[in-house]
Amino acid sequence: MSAPGILPRISTNPTGLVLTGGIIAATLDLAYICTLVYALHGLGPGWIMRSIAAGWLGRETAFAGGTGVALLGAASHYAIAIAMASVYYQAAKRMKPLARRPLLFGPVYGIALYLAMTFVIVPLSAAGTGTWQWHWTQLAHLAAHMWLVGLPCALASARALRESPA
Hints:
The chain is 78% helix and 0% strand. The chain contains seven helices and no strands. The radius of gyration is 16 Å and the shape is globular. The two termini are 22 Å apart. Keywords: Membrane, Transmembrane, Transmembrane helix.
C-alpha cells in the first residue's frame, strides 16, 4: 500500500523531500480553501492570507492590513505545513508502519491535524473567537486535511525514509 512514484522527484535528500511534502501540502490546502471561500463568499486569496495572519495579529489588525499582513499569513501557512510534514517524518522514523503505509496513515494524520487546528491551535491563537459552530463545510475541511495535507506529508516522509542512507 505504498505509492512510490506519486511525489515529483525534486530532491533525494530527506530534508528536501520533507520540505517538498510540506510545500505541496500547503499549496494544495491553499488552493482548496481559496476556491471554497471564493465560491461561497466571493473573497480572494488576500482575505485568506490575512485570516491566517490573524493568528498572530488578531482579526481586527489583520483584516485592516495590506500586502505585508497577507505575506505574513502566507509565510505562516507554509511554515506550519512544513512543520506538519516534519512531525510526520520524525514519527515515521520511530514507527515504521507510518512509513510503510502512507496511503493509510497519511489521511489518519490529516484527521489528527484537522482536529488539532480546529479545536486547539486556532482557538488558542489571536484569531480564535472562542466559539465553534457546525457547518457542512467542516466535512469538506476534514477531507481536505486528510487528502491534501496528511497524505502529502506521509508520502514525502515515506520517500525520504526509503531514500535516506541507513
